[in-house]
């Protein structure tokens, strides 16, 4: 195999694996306090919404959180009581808590539901 073919094949594989996908999380806040939510990639250093912002969800409300990710990427959520990050769910505000049920795989045109219970 020529060097050119190997480089072309590598470029094709890389491009296919980094295919952008649009998906959403549907967050239901069943708590009595507002919650802040961030989404964290487990495959690269990316946070949504980013820039030191959070998705804020009022008590007893629900919100669709759309975002773009890489097809097949692992996305985890961290949620905490607004103003009190010691009351957290998922991977927490610093993406450092263990969690088996708070990570999802990025799939084009899919929606994952998150129920934040008291």
Automatic annotation (TrEMBL):
Keywords: Signal. Residues 1-20 form the signal peptide. This is Mlr4654 protein.
């Amino acid at each position: 195999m020529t060097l050119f073919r190997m480089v072309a094949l590598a470029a094709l594989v890389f491009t296919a694996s980094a295919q952008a996908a649009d998906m959403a999380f549907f967050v239901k806040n069943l708590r009595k306090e507002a919650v802040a939510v961030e989404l964290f990639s487990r495959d690269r250093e990316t946070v949504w919404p980013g820039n030191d912002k959070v998705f804020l969800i009022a008590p007893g409300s629900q919100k669709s959180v759309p975002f773009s990710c890489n097809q097949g990427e692992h996305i985890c959520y961290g949620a905490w009581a607004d103003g009190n990050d010691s009351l957290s769910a998922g991977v927490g505000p610093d993406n450092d808590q263990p969690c088996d049920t708070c990570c999802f795989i990025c799939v084009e045109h899919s929606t994952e539901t998150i129920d934040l219970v008291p």
